[in-house]
Amino acid sequence: MKAQSPPRIRSDLEYIPVQQGKDMFVLIRDPLGLVETGKAVPLPLYRMMTLLDGRNSLRDVQMLLMREHGGVLVEMEAVEDLVNRLEASFLMDSEKFQRAREEIEAAFAAKKTRPCSHCGRSYPAEPTELRSTLDQLLAARSAMSKPPGRLVALAAPHIDLSVGSKVYASAYQWLQKESPSRIVVLGVGHQMMGDLFCLTEKAFETPLGEVETDRDRVEELRNANTDVISRNDFSHRAEHSIEFQVVFLKHLLPESSFRIIPILCGGLRASLSAYTRAAYLDRAGALLKGLSELVRDPNEKTLIVAGVDFSHIGPKFGHDQPAVHLQRPCEQHDKNLLKALSNRQADAFWEESIAVEDRFNVCGFSALACLLEVLPPSEGHVLNYEMWHEQPTRSAVSFAAVGFVAGVTNDFNHHPHLQ
User: Fold this and answer.
1) Phi and psi of 182, rounded to 5°?
2) Buried b (16+ CB within 10 A) or exposed e, 48-87
3) How close are the terminal C-alpha atoms of the chain, in Å?
4) In whole angstroms, what is the distance from residue 370 CA to residue 366 CA?
């Protein structure tokens, strides 16, 4: 390792604060599984890790640590030793990590089926237990009236199933009487870097059986839009935003009655020349056109499902205030987005996000932007909206359920969840 140029801490790790007695630790979750499961670091070490951003040299880190400790000498050998231990634990974006990642990518590329990555953790891996859990979840709120027309699209959460139970129920209760033959599933590529979309031809494994992918349509979309699609499908490997939707679909729809087209949508700020709808359409227009034609294919009964969450606020998500202080403007922002979404007003949807400079970290924005461009004629109904507070981090996440049906008139003012 060069003393003046250490590798940076990996950008794909998730950090979760946990309290043990009077001490605070930070639990590290690794989507690749290289970091030891359950590994937690003391808060002071986590703070040091945040200094390893690829810009600070080891000398810079040494000086910053000394400043934090009131000028007490921190030996360079101690800094180097800590960095070496972090690298040995696969926490650094180093050559060792890159080689390990390449091996994992190659192993995933060789698979014909995407293994379920969250079964046994986020939901039961045993089929009978899973069906019981999902039935309880769907009953988390009283039965809703059936859709007032033909269901063409759903937006559902991708937050933890138990946290979002009532909102999941609000979305998927509308699906129980439907029988689509093809489902476009839009998810959020939380680990995607610079690509607009990531597709996969792999079938999706669930505890309830495999869900087949419409490989021919996926291949057509990929071949026509190579400049906006990831070179491989690795981002699907550990991504939950589509997986959670597929589990519900497999549970609710008749056996082997449908195929899916799974599409992860990457962050737009890193992928566009400007954060505008015009720039999005200019770059993604060909894929959006192909997807729109596919959705309108009269030979298939196609449904669109978007697995999205809305705002992410508080210190965990980069704010210098706790979520409770940001909740009122955040909820107003969500309300404005949901109004534009349900009324299919793409310009207003973008303008709302641009106006606040995405201050509230709406992680589902890219998938919903895609949804708005490919929706067939329909009317939107906001079915539910909630915000969940994570007390240890003083942070919060909002999420919603929205249904789109063909052939009805929608009055947005009739949405009680947005009053």
Assistant:
1) -145, 140
2) bbebbeeebebeebbeebeeeeeeeebeeeebbebbeebb
3) 57
4) 6
Q: Which of 229, 270, 238, 311 is nearest to 12 (CA)?
A: 238
With contact defined as beta carbons under 8 Å apart, do 251 and 208 qualify?
A: yes
Band the pLDDT of 225: cuts 50, 70, 90. confident
Q: Which residues contact 107 (CB under 8 A, 6 or more apart)?
A: none
**Residue among 148, 116, 120 at smallest CA distance from 133:** 120
3-state secondary structure of 215: helix
Residues with Cβ within 8 Å of residue 53, at least 6 apart in sequence: 8, 9
Per residue in 302-329, pLDDT tens?
999 999 999 999 988 889 999 999 999 9
- Pairwise CA distance, residues 368 & 154, whole Å: 11
Maximum average pLDDT range among 34-48, 81-95, 328-342: 328-342
Written in H, E and C, the secondary structure of 99-150 is: HHHHHHHHHHHCCCEECCCCECCCECCCHHHHHHHHHHHHCCCCCCCCCCCE
- pLDDT attached to residue 272: 94
Contact 418, 342 (CB under 8 A): no
Q: 367 and 242 in contact (C-beta within 8 Å)? A: no
How far is Cα 133 from Cα 123, in angstroms, rounded to an integer? Answer: 8
Residue 248 phi/psi, 5° resolution? Answer: -65, -45
Tell me how far apart the alpha carbons of residues 365 and 275 are, in angstroms, rounded to a whole number.
12
Coil, strand or helix at 60: helix
400: CB partners within 8 A, 6+ apart: 155, 157, 167, 310, 334, 338, 382, 383, 384, 385, 386, 417
- Among 309, 224, 311, smallest CA distance to 265 is for 309
In this structure, what are the phi and psi dihedrals at residue 382, rounded to the nearest 5 degrees?
Answer: -80, 115
Pairing of strands 197-199, 150-156: unpaired
Q: State the Cα angle at 269 between 87 and 245, rounded to 5°.
A: 80
The residue type found at 78 is A
Structure token digits, residue 77: 């050998």
Contacts for 93 with CB less than 8 Å, ≥ 6 apart: 7, 8, 9, 10, 11, 54
Per-residue pLDDT reduced to its tens digit, 189-201: 998 988 999 999 9
**Burial class of residue 36 in the structure, from the number of CB atoms within 10 Å of its CB (0-12 exposed, 13-18 middle, 19+ buried):** exposed
How far is it, in rounded angstroms, from Cα 77 to Cα 178? 64
